[in-house]
Amino acid sequence: MSLKRLVPRMDESESRAWLGLTGVLQLLPGALETQLQRDAGLTHFEFVVLSALRFAPDSTMRMSALAAATDSTLTRLSHVCSRLEKRDLVERSSSPGDKRATDVRLSSHGRRELILATPAHIASVRRLVIDALTPEQLESLANVTETILAQLTDGTHCETALTRDPASPSEPAG
Questions:
Q1: 8 A C-beta contact, residue 114 and residue 47
Q2: Residue 173: inside a domain
Q3: Structural domain includes residue 144
């Protein structure tokens, strides 16, 4: 796809890269959201929250840690967790170490729903992104996104629910 527009103060190559990235950032979330809503009744953010909990020790995280892992405000996360709790996908409780803090745990029903939602979501990601690229392009995309993530996180490249490697050794069994 050739983008004919130029961004002020950017050359043609910079404009093409930037406008391409902004186009992906505008269209991909909606496509992922549509698939998850249709197939699993989840928003993409709810899927990310459930995924973060699934890979946490004992499938439990403190609300503040979950907010950081999902790049969310506590207010937004609290509203989402209320919706998820009403659907028996998560459980909230006072943190044993600090009664002022709240822990969120993935329920067995939530784990089951997440596991059921994952194959169609992965298929959608493959169809929209992975399969559209050659192996070389996929490697380039990985390099580019790692560089941008490092820039966005001041080089700390913090692990979030979106960047965690599900095959990493820290993954709980099952």
A1: yes
A2: no
A3: no
Nearest CA to 113 among 22, 44, 50?
50
Per the structure, the count of domains in the chain is 1
Tens digit of each residue's pLDDT (9 = 90 or more) over 13-33: 999 999 999 999 999 999 999
Q: Which residues make Cβ contacts (< 8 Å) with residue 100, sequence separation at least 6?
A: none
**Residue 162 covered by a domain:** no
Q: Which domain CATH number covers 78? A: 1.10.10.10
Name which of 46, 109, 113 is nearest 77 in CA terms.
46
Task: Provide the whole-model pTM.
Answer: 0.82
Residue 51 falls inside a structural domain: yes
Kindly report, residue by residue over 28-75, the tens digit of the pLDDT.
999 999 999 999 999 999 999 999 999 999 999 999 999 999 999 999
Residue 122, burial from CB neighbour count under 10 angstroms (0-12, 13-18, 19+):
exposed
The parent domain of residue 123 ranges over 27-133
In the structure encoding, which two tokens stand for residue 15, read together?
């404009």
The length of the chain, given as a count of residues: 174
The DSSP-derived string for 49-67 is HHHHHHTSGGGEEEHHHHH
